[in-house]
Write a structure and sequence with these properties.
216 residues, two-stranded antiparallel sheet, 2 domains, mainly alpha
């Protein structure tokens, strides 16, 4: 179910604002820019390839998180991640990418060499497997470890998306039937509201939103 919903995010970003409205009416979702551009500029049929190889990179670089990845990722997708790991990155499975020290307490260059070697290998494999140079910066594990601080993801790798929605009960009574309501209201910019209105009318062409707007 979650896997299907994640794919529907592609539909939502690519102009079908009704894609997520099976249970609620969503009218605002905040995406991190790199996720938005990733979904916006990747064909739906190709969307999993960059994700799979990106997850394979995290699997190598975050050995302490491998069980979490296995638990959270949709099993057929996780199996594909393991296939990529075993086919292309098996030599890196047991390498230590953390800073190491010699007997005198001085930093060694072993982790730096391992990291650079894997970085080069990831770049090479990504070019062959994903064939999507625009998306490279959005899924390569080095940039995203820094952006999302994955070391602080103690129990999951979920990225939370702030969102706003109306239940269908509220939608029917307030928007469709024009009934009064006691929902909280706050100051908001006009532009997002008008964008939402235009998206809604795209899928509900005969809907009269005038009564609703009189109370906003």
């Amino acid at each position: 179910m979650e896997y299907d919903t994640n794919l529907e995010l592609w539909d939502y970003i690519n102009k079908n604002r009704n894609a997520l409205n099976e249970k609620n009416k969503f009218y605002c979702i905040q995406f991190p820019k790199n996720i938005y551009y990733f979904l916006k500029h990747t064909k739906k049929s190709d969307i999993m390839k960059p994700i799979i190889i990106g997850l394979a990179g995290h699997y190598i670089l975050e050995p302490s998180k491998r069980k979490i990845l296995e638990k959270q990722i949709y099993k057929p997708i996780f199996n594909q991640v393991l296939e990529v790991v075993n086919k292309y990155f098996s030599d890196y499975l047991n390498l230590d990418f953390k800073t190491s020290y010699d007997d005198d307490g001085e930093e060694t260059n072993e982790s730096e060499i391992a990291t650079q070697s894997f970085r080069d290998k990831f770049h090479e494999v990504y070019g062959k497997y994903a064939k999507n140079s625009i998306m490279y910066q959005l899924v390569n594990p080095y940039d995203n470890i820094e952006k999302y601080n994955l070391a602080s993801f103690e129990d999951d790798f979920d990225i939370k998306l702030n969102h706003a929605f109306m239940t269908y009960i509220d939608w029917d009574s307030i928007v469709i039937n024009g009934e009064k309501d006691s929902l909280d209201r706050s100051e908001s910019k006009k532009e997002p509201l008008m964008r939402w209105r235009n998206d809604i009318l795209r899928h509900h062409k005969n809907l009269d939103l005038q009564k609703f707007y009189e109370r906003v």
